[in-house]
Specification:
The protein is mostly beta strands. It has helices spanning 312-316, 364-371, and strands at residues 4-12, 18-19, 21-25, 32-39, 44-52, 56-58, 67-71, 74-77, 80-81, 85-94, 99-101, 106-118, 124-138, 147-161, 164-177, 184-192, 202-208, 214-220, 223-229, 238-240, 247-255, 264-274, 279-281, 286-290, 299-305, 325-331, 359-361, 377-381, 386-391, 402-404. Strands 3, 5, 7, 8, 9, 12 and 13 form a seven-stranded mixed β-sheet that branches. Strand 1 and strand 2 (18-19) form a beta hairpin.
Length: 408
């Protein structure tokens, strides 16, 4: 005879009916599961609930009379005495990581009850039983209003390339869902490519994928189509879901000549298929207006410190302290003929700070990734224009990419 049993681990539908399979929005705040524990004879039971192979976890801030301790996938029960028939309501939340198999969105979970039943004769009886429940996590109310369909003109300038005057237009596209509320299966975006003075541009692309795994471009009749996929394959069957980032595409239009232009509309529209196969389409095109307004984001510099504070005691004691900074150069279009970066020497004589330059490091591989194999880097003393060192692809020794005391 069964002394302790989970009649069911179950959900309840919107009408309050008991079900062992339920469908809910992945971001729902009202998800609940239920357990029914019954001690049928005299004695009492002490045990725990363990959740395995699941796409949800228990909310750990849950408190009620039946729960002694709760963790994300484990509940220690308070003692259940004979004659008690307890329905335990447990708030839960979806548990989908940044990489997962597609099947996890519709998964059968195992709910195990184990513990010790002490009968009227004070004898211990081991109890272990498992029930299965299935939770389908869908996109819910996500619709076309949730699409992130942004296009911005970040560069509009004249440039001399190989001795010829060109107009450089760069567009930054943000694609996906505004808050990335649900994993995406694929994105299809269409961006217009206007002619200027009757001529089509050369197009360069820079893609930064955060959730998609593959992409391709197709151009026809003034429309550039971008297709992105986030699907499992033989090499990697994981789906990506970076909840804090979207897909970014930098498009560079290079026109043959630079002339004044009238307001020209560049339009972006987008279709998204979610991992639950819901298809949503942007309800309106997002437009950017191209005119003669000057903009330039072809090169961006970002500098930051590895640490932002120094103990006052070190300053008062006049203790030397090494300070490391990192300079990151983002080149969004391969049109610059040269880039000049200056590092100034500060000291107590010019009244700014008692700071002495010590060492610079250059990442060779990142230089090659951006500039290719044909490049030259010159280290120049800004005081007298002396070339201290010159780097190119022929420099193999890693120590050559470190410079100490190059400014005296």
């Amino acid at each position: 005879m069964t002394l302790v049993q989970i009649y069911e681990a179950y959900f309840k539908d919107e009408n309050g009916n008991i079900v062992t399979e339920n469908t809910n929005a992945i971001n729902s705040e009202s998800l609940k599961m239920y357990l029914y524990v019954n001690v049928k004879q005299e004695g009492y039971f002490n045990g725990e609930i363990n959740l395995t192979n699941s796409n949800f976890t228990f909310k750990t801030d849950t408190k009620n009379d039946y729960i002694k301790k709760i963790e994300s996938k484990k509940i220690v029960l308070n003692q259940v005495n004979a004659g008690n028939q307890e329905e335990i309501e447990i708030p839960i939340q979806s548990d989908i990581g940044e990489q997962f198999e597609q099947s996890k969105l519709s998964l059968q979970s195992n709910v195990e009850l184990k513990g010790v039943y002490k009968n009227g004769e004070k004898k211990d009886v081991e109890i272990n039983t498992t029930k299965d429940i299935k939770l389908n996590l869908v996109s819910g109310q996500i619709n076309k209003e949730n699409i992130k369909n942004d296009v911005n003109i970040i560069t509009n300038k004249k440039a001399i390339i190989n001795g010829e005057e060109k107009r450089i237009v760069q567009l930054e596209l943000q694609l996906g869902l505004t808050n990335n509320e649900y994993p995406i299966k694929n994105i299809t975006a269409q961006i217009s490519v206007p002619k200027l003075n009757g001529k089509e541009p050369k197009i360069e692309k820079n893609v930064q994928m955060n959730n998609m795994k593959e992409y391709e471009f197709n151009y026809s009749n003034g429309i550039l189509e971008i297709k992105m996929k986030n699907e499992g394959n033989e090499q990697n069957n994981k789906i990506l879901w970076n909840k804090k980032a979207n897909e970014k595409v930098i498009l560079t239009y290079i026109y043959d000549e630079y002339k004044d232009i009238q307001d020209t509309t560049i339009s972006l529209k987008q279709k998204i298929v979610l991992q639950d196969n819901k298809e949503i389409i942007s309800n309106t095109n997002e437009n950017a207006i191209l005119n003669n307004e000057y903009k330039d984001s072809t090169i961006k510099l970002n500098m930051y410190n590895y640490e932002n504070s120094i103990y006052k005691g070190n300053l008062y004691a006049n203790i030397d302290r090494d300070i490391k900074t990192k300079l990151k150069i983002d080149v969004t279009a391969n049109i610059a003929q040269d880039i000049t970066i200056g590092e100034l020497q500060y000291n107590k004589d010019n009244g700014n700070a008692n700071i002495q330059y010590k060492t610079s490091y250059i990442n060779k591989q990142q230089i090659v990734n951006v500039l290719g194999e044909e490049f030259t880097i010159k280290i120049i003393n800004t005081k007298n224009s002396e070339i201290i060192a010159e780097l190119n692809k022929e420099i193999r020794n890693r120590r050559k990419w470190k410079y100490s005391n190059i400014i005296s």
